[in-house]
Specification:
201 residues, alpha/beta, Aconitase, domain 4, seven-stranded mixed beta sheet, 8 helices, 16% strand, globular
Length: 201
């Protein structure tokens, strides 16, 4: 998993509540277990007409936000089914951080496991970030995970909380497999001792 230390990029505003995982990545894109190529399906129904033609005006299709790295969202982001393809699709598009007043629990956990930093802030702080994000390509913000601070385009800063263990995993780029491999020497030593003590197993 890619390490997350400091992220600087354009913030895109998506001030909608209850954005569920089917809105993030509709069911027809769940046939793959690959984590790449899913950006095409990200917010597909919000970005396309029923006949597949592109709708005008969706925020991530606007030139200023096509390379956005941060998403400023509304309450209960990521609700609905537990599909892990949702964070995969966001990451494949280039979104590495989502800031919202609240998240659905499973989606929130899946973000950390896939290298995305979900940040919970009060609605008043979200309003400031949405105002910053409305500046388009000038809406560049910096997310400093080490110091737990978001810095806006005018230099204003907002502190955020994050679980220490999850912070450690993101900074060191450790997913569940990486965490296990950190104990590789201990696992090997246990297996060797076990083989000596119980060779019939």
């Amino acid at each position: 998993m890619e390490k997350f230390t400091t992220l600087t990029g354009v913030a895109a505003p998506l001030d909608l509540v209850n954005v569920d995982t089917d809105m993030i990545i509709p069911k027809q894109f769940l046939k793959t277990i690959k984590r790449t190529g899913l950006a095409e399906g990200l917010f597909y129904d919000m970005r396309h007409e029923p006949d597949g033609s592109v709708k005008e005006g969706f925020v991530l299709d606007q030139p200023a936000y096509r390379k956005a790295k941060v998403l400023i969202a509304g309450e209960n982001f990521g609700c609905g089914s537990s599909r892990e393809h949702a964070p995969w699709a966001l990451l494949d598009f280039g979104i590495h951080c989502i800031v919202a007043p609240s998240f659905a629990d499973i989606f929130f956990n899946n973000c950390f496991k896939n290298g995305i930093l979900p940040i919970i802030l009060p609605r008043e702080e979200i309003a400031k970030l949405l105002d910053d994000a409305a500046r388009g390509a000038n809406a560049t913000i910096t997310v400093d995970l080490e110091n737990q601070v978001i810095t806006g385009p005018d230099g204003g800063s907002i502190a955020f909380d994050v679980d220490p263990f999850r912070k450690h995993c993101l900074i060191d780029g450790l997913d569940d497999i990486g965490l296990t491999l950190e104990k590789a020497d201990a696992i090997a030593a246990f297996e060797k001792a076990q083989e000596t003590a119980q060779p019939w197993l």
